[in-house]
Amino acid sequence: MSGAQVANLVREVEGLDLDGLRTEWARHYGAPPALRSVTILRLMLAWRLQADTHGGLDSDTRRALAKKGRIKAEGLELGVGARLTRQWQGRTHEVIVEADGFRWEGRTYRSLSAAATAIAGSRWNGPRFFGLREAP
Questions:
Q1: Which has more pLDDT, 46 or 65?
Q2: How many angstroms separate the CA atoms of 129 and 85, rounded?
Q3: Which residues are 37's β-sheet partners?
Q4: Scanning 44, 45, 48, 87, which has its CA 20 to 30 A from the CA of 35?
Q5: Is this model's pTM higher than 0.85 or not?
Q6: Which of 99, 54, 55, 108 is nearest to 79 (CA)?
Q7: Are 58 and 80 in the same domain?
Q8: Across-strand partners of 102?
Q9: How do beta strands 101-104 and 91-98 pair?
Q10: Which stretches within 15-111 are classed as H helix?
Q11: What's the DSSP call for residue 113?
Q12: Per-residue pLDDT tens for 87-105?
């Protein structure tokens, strides 16, 4: 596929809804990832289409990313002992930042999102749940 064809395809991808993105992904790569985020799936599809034509990450970039190691859970930079509170369904919930994760009601979770999901009973972005990020 030429660069111009890829550019046109990426422009088309920008206007697709979730079903359209999944269909386009399946057409090029097989079963689409189990994502519900239109934005993330759109970015992933556009990147793969471009990478297939122009090449993916160069070796220097891959090496630099490999050196980064494991990504620290967002929220740990608040410091051990920091307390995050959130009112949820008429109750105040408090999560405490620990060296190895986030403690809520005696259980430690590896990520703030895992703690937020346990509190809410449905999938949540932890930093957004606790007001550390603005809503899009």
A1: 46
A2: 10
A3: none
A4: 87
A5: no
A6: 99
A7: no
A8: 97, 109
A9: antiparallel
A10: 18-29, 38-54, 59-67
A11: H
A12: 999 999 999 999 889 999 9
Contact 53, 1 (CB under 8 A): yes
Q: What is the pLDDT of residues 47-58, one digit of tens each?
A: 999 999 888 889
Q: Report yes or no on 116 lying in a domain.
A: yes
Rounded to an integer, what distance in angstroms lies between the CA atom of residue 97 and that of residue 29? 40
Distance (Å, rounded) from C-alpha 36 to C-alpha 12? Answer: 19
CA distance 88 to 93: 7
Q: What is the pLDDT of residue 97?
A: 94
Both tokens of residue 61? 């970039």
Helix (H) or strand (E) holding 104: strand 101-104
Residues 44 and 88 in one domain: no
- Residue 54's domain comprises 3-67
Structure tokens at 126: 């932890």
pLDDT more than 90, % of the chain: 64
Quote the distance between the C-alpha of residue 22 and its chain's center: 18
